[in-house]
Specification:
heterotrimer, A alpha/beta (228), B mainly alpha (445), C alpha+beta (81), A: 228 residues, alpha/beta, Rossmann fold, Helix Hairpins, 7-stranded mixed beta sheet, globular, B: mainly alpha
Chain lengths: 228, 445, 81
């Protein structure tokens, strides 16, 4: 019987242990190529789990999903264009505040998201305490704890990936409030955007936020539609 | 048109928000995100009231210390080279023995041309190159360990001040280190440098960082001509390369690539213990580029050279009358001012364009001896003095990057102009420096 | 007591400072924001004071900044009293 395929995107900051997680999942079954059109490395691998074949794509390590560098554009485009079944954000749990900045931006893209708290051993040695349950409730996504260096948490992550994929969970994560005035402008923009052809491909809300942020790639997309 | 409307609404929104917040909308949004995270963490994260200084920070107090930082780095580099060469010695012996066995077996093989292909071509040519796989892979393992544990970021940090003096910054330092293994991944690593002038400068001078492929040349010639001081001579090649890179970086930044430099911003992640799998995967990513090169370019080059040495049918193998000899004799005069105007040298240099290891591979194929005897043969048959050998080594160190490296330069710069420039300027400098060394050296020695 | 605003390069190590302004173009500001450095947050310098790169504690992570870069970040010491 043919195995079903799940496409998993691994996102995360550089130095978050994302590569280790990728190695744990795919082992020797990985290969490196290039993303088409850019000089950014594309790492993909296969992981067989239960009745599924997981195609794991290791996105470039980025601090943010603005259009600052080719790495960020590639990571972002994969999520919104290829629409993977699950996005896993590998977070350095000993550095939660900075790492969650990326998670929040992924949440704005309204994709199925799992937050993997990696480097829990460092959290323990620093005597931090993280309430994963509260985090999951307040941030609105599943949370898995890992020590990728010791290959701990990999099975829990796989279980969660399959669970999220099976349930076809539409969008992980709560909606951030940017403050009343900004929210007003977002609503106005959303209305104008919803009539544009781009609204069928991307979430109008996300496009609105990106336009306010001055995102060059999104502005370009709008200009391309106008020029057609 | 609604998309145009959207852009217009955007302009209006930005203006409104700017007047309310006195700040760009993007800053307000970023602050809102961080604000959300702070609020969230109040419920989720508890740090001890008195946080111990982490082990990472304690280590950094020494590692990035203003006075200790650079000496520590140099000591580490010395340790790495020791590690690489000591560990690779037994492996290199095995490979040498293996090729010696092939040579012995092949001596009696018929038809004769096949035997010649095996001994002269494969053993002489390919063997003298493959023997360097252990040190190259071990070097990549060492670099992978340094990167995965987090030290490389510290090295970039510590070197930032010095890099500034040549018009670059800390980020340009890591590709330089990678260049000692192989210039191809090193040039690709320049992607993390955002400022285009900094990036281009780092790419252009990277070939001067003596890659693993040039090592066979140095080891061979230093061993034959400077036996007592071979370690020192090989080391001097690396130093000359570094000095050339520094000088050219300065020149570029003050002339054709003038302009403000980028800013150095780099996270120093906490030190982590590297995993075995992680290091091996990392090593393999870079090492495989070298193996692909060996498997394809070098192997092909060796066969071609053997063929050219054996033709026309009937001439003595690799004599001045063979095709390769004829090619060489046309080129050779260019190199006489530098002391190595023999056709064998000229031909080796030309084929070295394919991959620098092929310089030794060519010599090995032409003289049809294995690596161990090659040095002596060059000395006796070409009549080189140690000065000539040194001049030749410097030329090979500095001249045009191999075709694979040029391919990487083209890939990263997306410009034939700069790729061509890289090929030409390095060769010109190589010729000038080698000639100067030989001419000035001849006055004293 | 009013604290004066100084560039980060003059901030003494080990003390807590609040970022008041970042004098840089939008690209650089965005990059710094992506790595956690925004106005209003508290930072502290980890290494000694001298003409070289600065190691900064930013929201728990360690950020290395070139000297020229650090000169563009204005901070004010945070007083407990």
């Amino acid at each position: 019987m043919a195995k079903k395929e799940i496409v998993v995107a691994l996102a995360g900051n550089p130095n978050s242990g994302k590569t280790t997680v990728f190695n744990n999942l795919t082992g020797a079954r990985q290969h490196v190529g290039n993303w088409p059109g850019v000089t950014v490395e594309k790492k993909e691998g296969i992981c067989s789990f239960q009745e599924y074949n997981l195609r794991v794509v290791d996105l470039p390590g980025v601090y943010s999903l603005t259009a600052y560098s080719p790495d960020e554009v590639v990571a972002r485009n994969f999520i919104i264009d290829e629409k993977p079944d699950v996005v896993v954000d590998i977070v350095d749990a000993s550095n939660l505040e900075r790492n969650l900045y990326l998670a929040v931006q992924i949440m704005e893209m309204e994709v199925p998201l799992i937050i993997a708290l990696n480097m829990m051993d460092e959290v323990e040695s620093r005597k931090y305490k993280i309430n994963a349950k509260t985090l999951s409730q307040e941030i609105g996504t599943s949370v898995v704890q890992m020590v990728a260096n010791r290959n701990q948490g990999t099975d829990a992550l796989l279980d969660e990936i399959v669970r999220v994929a099976k349930k076809k969970i539409e969008a992980g994560g709560v909606r951030i409030e940017y403050g009343r005035e900004v929210e007003n402008e977002i609503s106005k923009l959303e209305e104008a955007i919803s009539k544009s052809p781009l609204a069928s491909r991307y979430s109008p809300k996300w496009l609105a936020v990106k336009l306010l942020e001055g995102d060059e790639e999104v502005i370009k997309k709008f200009q391309e539609v106008i020029n057609v | 048109m609604s998309s145009a409307d959207a852009l217009k609404v955007r302009e209006e929104s930005l203006a409104r928000l700017k007047s309310i917040y006195r700040d760009e909308a993007e800053t307000v949004i970023a602050d809102a995100r961080y604000g959300f995270i702070s609020g969230l963490l109040k419920d989720v994260l508890k740090k001890p009231s008195l946080e111990r200084v982490s082990l990472s920070d304690k280590i950094d107090n020494v590692v990035i210390n203003r006075w200790l930082g650079i000496p520590l780095f140099l000591a580490l580099m010395y340790g790495v080279f020791q590690f690489v060469f000591t560990l690779s010695a037994p492996f290199m012996d095995w490979i040498d023995q293996f090729f010696g066995w092939i040579g012995g077996y092949a001596a009696g093989v018929s038809p004769e041309w096949f035997g010649s292909l095996l001994t002269d071509g494969i053993v002489g040519g390919l063997g003298s190159v493959l023997i360097f796989i252990p040190p190259i892979f071990l070097l990549f393992i060492a670099i992978a360990i340094l990167e995965d544990c987090g030290y490389m970021a510290r090295a970039a940090f510590v070197m930032d001040r010095l890099m500034h003096k040549i018009g670059l910054h800390g980020r340009s330092f890591i590709p330089m280190i990678l260049g000692f293994g192989c210039n191809i991944p090193a040039i690709m690593a320049c992607r993390t440098i955002e400022n285009p002038r900094d990036r281009l400068t780092t790419i252009l001078v990277n070939p001067f960082m003596s890659c693993g492929a040039r090592l066979p040349i140095f080891v061979l010639l230093a061993g034959a001509f400077f036996t007592a001081n071979q370690g020192l001579v090989v080391f001097s090649m690396y130093v000359i390369g570094i000095i050339a890179a520094i000088i050219m970086a300065l020149i570029f930044r003050k002339s054709i690539l003038k302009g403000p430099s980028g800013h150095f911003v780099m996270e120093l992640p906490p030190y982590r213990m590297p995993t075995v799998m992680g290091v091996l995967v990392h090593m393999w990513e870079r090492g495989q580029l070298f193996l692909k090169k060996a498997g394809t370019l070098i192997f092909t080059a060796v066969i071609v050279i053997w063929f050219l040495s054996s033709m026309p049918w009937g001439t003595d193998y690799a004599s001045a009358g063979s095709w390769i000899g004829q090619i060489g004799r046309v080129i050779a005069p260019v190199f006489s001012p530098a002391g190595f105007g023999q056709w064998q040298a000229g031909v080796s240099i030309i084929f070295g364009f394919l991959a620098k290891e092929v310089v030794v591979g060519t010599m090995g194929t032409i003289f049809a001896v294995e690596e161990g005897l090659l040095g002596g043969v060059i000395s006796s048959q070409l009549g080189w003095t140690p000065l000539v050998a040194f001049s030749f080594m410097v030329f090979c160190l500095l001249y045009m990057p191999c075709v694979a490296a040029l391919g990487a330069i083209r890939g990263e710069t997306k410009s034939w102009k700069w790729t061509g420039f890289a090929a030409v300027y390095t060769t010109v400098i190589a010729w000038i420096v080698a000639t100067l060394i030989f001419q000035i050296g001849s006055l004293f020695i | 007591m009013v604290q004066e605003t100084i560039p980060l390069t003059m901030a003494s190590p080990g003390k807590l400072f609040s970022v008041t302004a970042i004098i840089a173009g939008w690209r650089l500001q965005r990059r710094l924001a992506d790595m956690g450095l925004t106005t209003g947050i508290q930072v502290s310098v980890m290494n000694g004071q001298h003409a070289g790169p600065i190691l900064l504690d930013v929201r728990g992570s360690r950020l290395g900044l070139g000297y020229g870069m650090a000169q563009k970040i204005l901070v004010k010491e945070v007083n407990d009293g």
